[in-house]
């Protein structure tokens, strides 16, 4: 078992209002799975993905990743966990405007304190993998949306993570570019990567091996797709 | 439009008070520094401007070049030149001699020591000082006339309504009654000529050698000419004037032709120039370095520029925040020109608010600045308000033009469709960083120069003077050439409780009079060198404790130690007298080591001098002045106009002053001088640098503050903009510590670059300024290290709050930020 969530809860409190974003989530994900999370806006998909990605903390419950209990980790330990195990793909790409594509991808390795030569090698390989090597020296603003998202995927895979988290990776793309991104994700999954993807697109969700539907902060359906 | 502008500013003040405050405070500080320094510079440039037609009043300066000495310029010239001026130069409208001396003035019970100028009756034809009472044409025609300054009249009579009143004056023992014929008005601006009293030159004074010998330095000669052309004609013919009248007499210390190794020349200096010019003139201790004054103005302008950079930086950085407003206004029909005018207008109104703040700051700061710089600086609204208006307008335009261009150029469709606010891209970021670099480069360069100025001022105060300055008190005035009284004074001082030793000498810290003569080593072909001479009486060695480098000090038991001194010296041809050299004389006479000079013989005319000792140079002069070669004689006979010096112990300085004054008054009841410490006598040498150091410190402190205000504003903006990036970095595994390091490095990089850029110009400026001092510090790498460390520490503290907040951001929240 790669991931095991038990009774995960996420509350947001302000002075006057308490909002429940996630409520009693129990979820297990095996190594090598490709899971699509669907649901209407505000149902807690992104919150769940943020908690899975440890960039947000649950207010209750347990999150085990392999043998590690992540809810007990401090900020520095979580940062170490993220750089060693996770790769992110965001809807709005989240590339840093001031860095070139190559530098953006390298960013995922810089925090691992890896030798520069190895970083360069891995970055080149990742760019080749998603077909954007010719754009290495360009800045994000000089690329199309599809190219930016491929760069973001390259950044997500360059560290060879145990888990890739994709938050609506095709949400800002046209149909062709969206299809290309899904192809890449499928290919990565075929190569053994575990992927959890939030999407609004049923057709893209159907490309995953498992589909989880959420509503009002809870998992309502978890079904395996016939592929 | 104005209402729209004002409404927008009020809205900004409500929504972004920090931004507006940073902007207005930065501009206010910059304009205040500019205003205060401009008033200070204007003050320095206005010396003697209140004297009518001062540009055509010229002072005759003497230039001496003698073997063994650096060339010297002296405002005191030989008065023998005076009668020839009129005959040789028909361009001269009027001329006067001007010799100052301490006069004791007495009216009833009141006594005042007055710095009195002995002048010719034509004085007011040359220098038209304004009179509060009396007639300038007749004020100095009577031999017993005396013109008092308003302050002196107040001190003597309690009123200035004293025309025709009789006062008793005492000058060098000549006690006479004089009639007050006029009262000088208080000058309306700074002047270099501000005597306490004016009186016709007494007949006994004119018999002195300085009136009849070319080699002497008697006093000033002022002439009035019609215009600059006449000045030029006279200047061109002064060399001929010297050749015609001054050359050929081997006994006079001047030559053109007879002694080609020497040079004596004359030049003219306008009264409007003397305040700056006198820096290179002997005794011009109150003069100001024009380049330093210009640097002050430069600092003022640069402080304003720093504030402008701040405003531009903040405005362009935050332009993105107003992009939607621009887009909506354009969608609703506003043209680019209308928006441009609106944004420039906002900048000018913001600057005007800063200008009001600057005026208030200036009002508060000016009295402090005046006290700090020892000037009579005051707020002159007739100048200040139009000047400030111009500054506000120019500054407002400078602040507003570029940001207005950027803001008004936003394309509505692009802005409204974008998810992120426009930042101007990498070129705008480069511009912002460039401006921060320039700001800090100026601030760091100021700070380095300020540190050097302060260190030099401190060095001048604590300089090894070659004698022990502590525990010495010196009479503030010299005494008459009266053997009986001099002996009586020595006795009176010696018997004063607390006095360890006492001596008389002409040369004391901050030298009044100097006399020089020529010496040459016996058997040497190197020719004469011109040396400063002093004859000491009493226990000089214990009083000053000069550092003996070789040989011995004087001892009255050695017959040849006791020279006759002064004029008697030359009346004893064929004699040999023992003397002590200073270190500079040693090297100028060609001796390699102090020991090699001991026993050496020197010739001065027909007199032979035997060197018995060599001392370290005793620095009685300004650090700006070259140390003269000096030969010291010892005598038991009275000397001309010596000062009394006393070493004391076992009592406080103030108690000793009182005791010594009592002893002095017993002997010289009509010359009510007090006693001063070495520090007090020499303070004029470094007080200007000290005051300048304070002014520079404040200005550079403000410059750093303005730069930090800008950095803080920029950091706030960048922190806001980079929150999202921090989210990404954290999602990719960066820890808070790594983010903190990265952000601090990014914020401080321009500051570091600025430090590097500032180093060379700061070093050059500091070196250039220090080159004006013969006794000076070396610019050290520590000056740079200290300023750079402090600047980086201040800059780091400035951005630390923003950086910490950014580093601690939760990644999920940070990713949502925009």
UniProtKB/TrEMBL annotation, chain A:
PROSITE patterns assigned to the protein according to its UniProt record, in alphabetical order: ABC_TRANSPORTER_1 (PS00211), ABC_TRANSPORTER_2 (PS50893)
Keyword list, A-Z: ATP-binding, Cell inner membrane, Cell membrane, Membrane, Nucleotide-binding, Transport
Domain ABC transporter as annotated: residue spans: 6-227
GO terms for MF: ATP binding; ATP hydrolysis activity; transmembrane transporter activity
Residue stretches spanning the membrane: none
InterPro entries referenced in this protein's UniProt entry, alphabetically: AAA+_ATPase, ABC_transporter-like_ATP-bd, ABC_transporter-like_CS, ABC_transpr_LolD-like, MacB-like_ATP-bd, P-loop_NTPase
Keyword Nucleus among record annotations: no
A cellular-component GO term for this protein: plasma membrane
Family: Belongs to the ABC transporter superfamily. Macrolide exporter (TC 3.A.1.122) family.
Name listed for the protein in its UniProt record: ABC transporter ATP-binding protein
Organism of origin: Gluconobacter cerinus
From TrEMBL, chain B:
Record keyword Zinc present: no
Membrane topology: Multi-pass membrane protein
UniProt-listed Pfam families: FtsX, MacB_PCD
Name of the protein this chain belongs to: ABC transporter permease
Signal peptide coordinates: none
Molecular function terms, GO-annotated: transmembrane transporter activity
Domain ABC3 transporter permease C-terminal: 299-412, 698-811
Cell location: Cell membrane
GO CC annotation, single: plasma membrane
Keyword vocabulary terms for this entry: Cell membrane, Membrane, Transmembrane, Transmembrane helix
Entry's transmembrane regions: 20-41, 295-316, 337-361, 381-410, 431-453, 694-720, 747-766, 778-800
First-listed, main subcellular location of the protein, grouped into a coarse class: membrane
Residue span(s) of domain MacB-like periplasmic core: 21-239
Highest taxon above the source species: Bacteria
């Amino acid at each position: 078992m790669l991931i095991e969530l038990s009774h995960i809860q996420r509350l947001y409190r302000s002075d006057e209002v308490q909002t429940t974003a996630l409520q009693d989530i129990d979820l297990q994900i095996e190594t090598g799975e490709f899971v699509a999370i669907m649901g209407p806006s505000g149902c807690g998909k992104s919150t769940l993905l943020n908690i899975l990605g440890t960039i947000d903390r649950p207010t209750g419950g347990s999150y085990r990743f392999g043998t590690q209990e992540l809810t007990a980790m401090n900020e520095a330990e979580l940062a170490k966990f993220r750089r060693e195990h996770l790769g992110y793909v965001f809807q709005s790409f989240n590339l840093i405007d001031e860095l070139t594509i190559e530098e953006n991808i390298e960013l995922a390795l810089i925090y691992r304190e890896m030798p520069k030569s190895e970083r360069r090698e891995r970055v080149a390989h990742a760019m080749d993998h998603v077909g954007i090597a010719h754009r290495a020296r360009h800045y994000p603003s000089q690329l199309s949306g599809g190219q930016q998202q491929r760069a973001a995927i390259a950044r997500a895979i360059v560290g060879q993570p145990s888990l890739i988290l994709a938050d609506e990776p095709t949400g800002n793309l046209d149909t062709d570019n969206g299809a290309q991104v899904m192809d890449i994700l499928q290919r990565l999954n075929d190569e053994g990567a575990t992927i959890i993807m939030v999407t609004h697109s049923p057709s893209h969700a159907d490309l995953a091996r498992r589909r989880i539907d959420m509503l009002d902060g809870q998992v309502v359906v978890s079904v395996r797709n016939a592929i | 439009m104005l209402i729209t502008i004002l409404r927008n500013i009020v809205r900004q003040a409500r929504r972004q008070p920090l931004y507006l405050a940073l902007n207005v405070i930065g501009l206010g500080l910059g304009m205040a520094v500019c205003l205060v320094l401009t008033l200070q510079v204007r003050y320095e440039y206005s010396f003697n401007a209140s004297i009518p037609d001062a540009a055509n009043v010229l002072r005759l300066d003497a230039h001496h070049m003698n073997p063994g000495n650096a060339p010297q310029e002296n405002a005191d010239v030989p008065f023998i030149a005076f009668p020839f001026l009129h005959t040789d130069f028909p361009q001269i409208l009027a001329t006067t001699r001007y010799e100052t001396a301490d006069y004791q003035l007495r009216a009833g019970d009141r006594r005042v020591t007055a710095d009195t100028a002995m002048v010719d009756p034509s004085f007011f034809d040359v220098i038209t000082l304004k009179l509060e009472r009396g007639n300038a044409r007749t004020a100095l025609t009577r031999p017993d006339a005396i013109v008092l300054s308003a302050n002196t009249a107040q001190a003597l009579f309690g009123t200035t309504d004293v025309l025709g009143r009789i006062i008793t004056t005492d000058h060098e023992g000549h006690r006479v009654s004089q009639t007050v014929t006029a009262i000088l008005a208080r000058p309306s601006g700074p002047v270099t000529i501000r005597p306490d009293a004016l009186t016709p030159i007494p007949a006994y004074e004119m018999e002195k050698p300085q009136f009849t010998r070319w080699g002497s330095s008697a006093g000033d000669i002022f002439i009035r000419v019609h215009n600059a052309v006449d000045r030029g004609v006279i200047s061109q013919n002064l060399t001929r004037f010297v050749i015609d009248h001054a050359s050929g007499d081997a006994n006079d210390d001047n030559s053109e032709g007879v002694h080609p190794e020497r040079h004596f020349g004359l030049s003219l200096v306008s009264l409007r120039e003397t305040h700056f010019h006198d820096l290179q003139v002997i005794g011009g201790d109150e003069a100001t370095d024009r380049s330093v004054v210009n640097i002050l103005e430069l600092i003022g302008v640069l402080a304003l520029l720093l504030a402008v950079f701040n405003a531009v930086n903040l405005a362009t950085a935050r332009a993105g925040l107003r992009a939607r407003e621009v887009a909506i206004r354009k969608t609703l029909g506003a043209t680019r020109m209308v928006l441009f005018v609106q944004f420039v207008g906002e900048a000018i109104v913001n600057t005007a608010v800063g200008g009001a703040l600057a005026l208030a700051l200036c009002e508060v700061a000016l009295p402090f600045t005046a006290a700090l710089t020892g000037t009579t600086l005051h707020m002159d609204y007739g100048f200040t308000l139009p000047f400030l208006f111009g500054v506000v307008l120019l500054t407002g335009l400078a602040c507003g033009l570029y940001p207005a261009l950027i803001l008004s150029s936003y394309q509505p469709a692009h802005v409204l469709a974008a998810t992120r606010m426009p930042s101007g891209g990498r070129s705008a970021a480069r511009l912002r960083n460039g401006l921060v670099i320039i700001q800090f480069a100026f601030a760091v360069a100021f700070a380095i120069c300020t540190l050097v100025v302060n260190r030099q001022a401190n060095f001048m105060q604590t300089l090894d003077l070659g004698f022990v300055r502590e525990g010495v008190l010196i009479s503030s005035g010299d005494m008459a050439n009266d053997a009986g009284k001099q002996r009586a004074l020595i006795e009176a001082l010696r018997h004063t409780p607390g006095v360890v030793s006492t001596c008389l000498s002409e040369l004391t810290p901050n030298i009044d009079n100097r006399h020089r003569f020529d010496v040459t080593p016996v058997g040497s072909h190197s020719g004469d060198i011109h040396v400063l001479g002093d004859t000491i009486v009493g226990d000089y060695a214990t009083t000053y404790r000069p550092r003996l480098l070789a040989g011995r000090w004087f001892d009255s038991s050695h017959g040849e130690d006791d020279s006759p001194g002064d004029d008697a010296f030359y009346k004893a041809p064929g004699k040999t007298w023992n003397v002590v050299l200073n270190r500079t004389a040693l090297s100028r006479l060609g001796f390699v080591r102090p020991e090699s000079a001991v026993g050496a013989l020197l010739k001065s005319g027909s007199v032979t001098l035997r060197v018995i000792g060599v001392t370290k140079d005793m620095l009685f002069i300004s650090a700006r002045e070259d140390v003269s070669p000096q030969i010291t004689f010892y005598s038991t006979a009275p000397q001309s106009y010596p000062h009394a010096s006393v070493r004391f112990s076992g009592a406080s300085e103030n108690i000793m002053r009182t005791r010594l004054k009592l002893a002095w008054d017993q002997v010289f009841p009509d010359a009510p001088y007090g006693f001063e410490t070495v520090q007090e006598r020499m303070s004029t040498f470094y007080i200007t640098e000290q005051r300048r150091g304070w002014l520079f410190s404040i200005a550079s402190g403000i410059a750093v503050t303005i730069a930090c205000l800008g950095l803080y504003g920029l950091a706030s903006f960048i922190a806001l903009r980079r929150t999202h990036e921090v989210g990404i970095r954290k999602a990719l595994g960066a820890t808070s510590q790594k983010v903190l390091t990265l952000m601090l490095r990014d914020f401080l990089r321009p500051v570091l670059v600025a430090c590097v850029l500032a180093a060379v110009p700061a070093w050059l400026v500091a070196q250039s300024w220090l080159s004006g001092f013969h006794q000076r510090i070396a610019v050290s790498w520590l000056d740079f290290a200290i300023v750079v460390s402090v600047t980086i520490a201040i800059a780091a503290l400035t951005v630390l709050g923003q950086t910490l907040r950014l580093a601690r951001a939760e990644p999920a929240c940070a990713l949502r930020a925009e």
